[in-house]
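Morning!

This is the sequence you dropped in the shared folder:
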Amino acid sequence: METNPRVSRAILVGIQVPSVDDVAHAASIEELGRLVKTLGYEVVATMSQKRDEIGGGTVLGKGRLEELAAITGGTGVVGSMAIPHKSKARERFEDADAKKPDAPQIEPDPEAPPKPEFVIVDHEISPSQARATSSVQPVRRCSIGPA
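The structure's back. Tokens below.
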């Protein structure tokens, strides 16, 4: 019996800044798709975001993050990267909550297609922007910068 190796699934994310026209942006996403397929991945989705500039903590807006989260199974919420400091009273309160029984776990649907493991961004992004993208869902991500 021959078994086929599992193919990793990827989502392509294109960021279009004002200096890039629609034709060049579409061509860049197409080329990225070909490269990703050549590397042996299955492209399961492609999304694009027009931005005035790439700056701040995220490269995607709130709506696109939620869309990406729906595909990957994440929350779509980018939280603070700062380590929260808790008061002793807060720790006691949370310890009391931890002793309560857990909510029932939802079993994944065996008929549902597997979630993507990679988010591949067609733009150079900073490490903090990469962490923000991974907060949507803990997937591996790659960044492809401009040529």
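Headline: The domain at 1-42+56-77+113-147 is CATH 3.40.50 (Rossmann fold).

More detail when I'm at my desk.
O.
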